[in-house]
Amino acid sequence: MSASRTRQKARARILSAFAAQLDRLIPDDESVPLKGATFADFEDQVGMFARF
């Protein structure tokens, strides 16, 4: 049972880190502009995050 709790904690930490980065790249508040001047800039940011 402790292994599943450890897995659950690891998943929770990863999901938390992902959510923080997602909020940084694509803020939930639509009044906050996205970073980058073009869609390609946005794709590059996502690509950098995907490599982690």
How does this structure look, described?
With 52 residues, this protein is mostly helical. It is 69% helix and 0% strand. It has 2 helices and no strands. The protein starts with a helix and ends with a helix. The mean pLDDT is 82.
Rg from C-alpha positions?
Answer: 15 Å
Main sheet record = none
| β-sheet strand percentage | under 5%
Mean pLDDT, to the nearest integer, reads 82
Poorly predicted sequence stretches spanning 5 or more consecutive residues: none
Which descriptor suits the 3D outline? elongated
Category by helix and strand content: mainly alpha
Strand runs, count: 0
Question: Kindly, what is the distance between the CA atoms of the first and last residues, rounded to a whole number of angstroms?
Answer: 29 Å
Helix-residue proportion: 55-70%
Counting DSSP H or I runs of 4 or more residues, the number of helices is: 2
Order of helices and strands: HH
Record keyword descriptors for this entry:
about 50 residues; 2 helices; about 0% strand
Layout of secondary structure:
Elements: H1 2-25, H2 39-50
Short summary of the structure?
With 52 residues, the chain is mainly alpha-helical. It is built from two helices and no strands. The longest helix has 24 residues, at 2-25.
